[in-house]
Design brief:
73% of the residues lie in helices and 0% in strands. 39% of the residues are buried. The protein contains eight helices and no strands. The two termini are 33 Å apart. Helix 1 runs antiparallel to helix 2, helix 5 runs antiparallel to helix 6 and helix 5 runs parallel beside helix 7. By secondary structure, it is mostly helical.
């Protein structure tokens, strides 16, 4: 392969960005989503300045999640687009981004679209924990729609995924 074809190496870890992200993660774990969002925003700005695709992807995802939890869906779509672009640059799957997008669709009153996207994630992801989360979202949407048949089907699928998780640790925010 030619010299211009190689993937550029990731920039070295910036200690300030790492500290901001760590502080954000601690706030998130304490359910202080407002504080977590503020720190994720600062860390994301630093990662963007360094063009660190791995950091940008994870930080944009986490900031989007915090904003959804705060009931602030504005800007979440742009963050997901940014994270998706960085994942594509890195050759990574967007499954968790798709599930967060399904939650955004739910939060903005687009339940049918949210359910369709969550089902696609559940059926396509190779990650059992993510598939479980997707089926649970499908079940929540079915509950909100008062659709007992769809709820029963989603819970059955979630149960299958949960069975596959025995002994596996669930993933934490990035």
């Amino acid at each position: 392969a030619g010299a211009g074809c190689a993937t550029p190496p990731a920039p070295p870890v910036d200690p300030t960005t790492a500290q901001l992200a760590s502080t954000a993660r601690a706030a998130y774990e304490r359910r202080d989503h407002r504080r977590a969002a503020a720190f994720y925003e600062q860390a994301l700005q630093r990662a963007r300045a360094r063009d660190s695709r791995e950091e940008i992807s994870g930080l944009a995802y986490n900031l989007a999640a915090c904003r959804l939890l705060l009931g602030q869906p504005d800007g979440v779509s742009a963050l997901l687009t940014e994270a998706r672009q960085e994942r594509a640059r890195a050759g990574q799957r967007p499954d968790d981004l798709d599930l967060l997008e399904a939650n955004l669709l739910r939060a903005t009153g687009k339940a049918e679209e949210a359910g369709a996207l969550a089902r696609r994630v559940a059926e396509a992801t190779p990650t059992p924990a993510l598939a479980l989360d997707a089926w649970l979202l499908v079940g929540q949407l079915a509950t909100e729609a008062r659709d007992a048949v769809a709820l029963e089907a989603a819970l059955a699928k979630a149960g299958e995924q949960a069975g596959g998780l025995r002994g596996d640790a669930r993933s934490c925010p990035q």
